[in-house]
Design a protein that fits this description.
Blueprint lengths: L3 E4 L7 H11 L6 E6 L2 H13 L3 E7 L2 E7 L24 E4 L9 H14 L9 E4 L14 H9 L3 E5 H6 L10 E3 L1 H10 L3 E2 L2
Parallel strand pairs: 1-2, 5-6, 5-9, 6-7, 7-8
Antiparallel strand pairs: 2-4, 3-4
Length: 203
Amino acid sequence: MGIKTADARGLLCPKPLIMTKKTLAECAEGEEMIVLIDNETSMQNVERFINDNGMEVSHTVEGGVYTLHIVKTKGPLAKPDAESYCCAPAASAPHAICFRSNKMGVGEDDLGEILVKACINTIESVDPKPAAMVFYNSGILLTLEDSAVAEPLKALEKAGIKILVCGTCADYYKQKENVAAGTISNMYDILETLSNAGKVIYP
């Protein structure tokens, strides 16, 4: 007789948990079963359910499909309510906005300056707000004391939004002493901030 398999691909919680519990009930003590899941959250919920019931579980992943290997142990389930293990996916990390230029979009420079000013002035009214704003290349010019958006940027920083200004870029433009909003930063901190963002917006 082959290994019993619960194929929960394409299904969301609580169905993978219910199928796992049902297939588990059909297994004899010491018997191995397999669960196929293509949703990471559901996979984690099933693993937690199995672990809390004192059974062995491991998984491999290939092509977006998780294959869980479970060995049934003796006795009734200590925590039989599989459905209670179903939880929604965790909220994604806050986004970041990255300004690569002191203008917005490609085309007329005057229009680009109007658009980037409107963009920054609108951020305070947007929900959710970004966790961070990154400025590099000519984007650092937006953070200078004489910039039309210096005050709005200071207000956003005061509201808790992290503002990082590329130090190499500020040096290149010889404007390091004139940065009025944000923190002079380095490439490591900039990349770490962008990497940890749920998504990055490039106006």
